[in-house]
Amino acid sequence: MTRRFDIGPVLVALGAIVILVGLFLRWYGTLNAWDAFELTDVLLAALAVGALVVAVGLLAPEAELLDRRALPWLAGAAFVVVAAELINPPPVAAGQDLDLGAWLSFAAALVMVAGTVLTFGKVSLAVAVEGRDRRRRVAAVDHRPPPTETGAPVRPSESLLHPRREEGEPTGS
Question: Cβ distance 8 to 123 under 8 Å?
Answer without folding.
Answer: yes
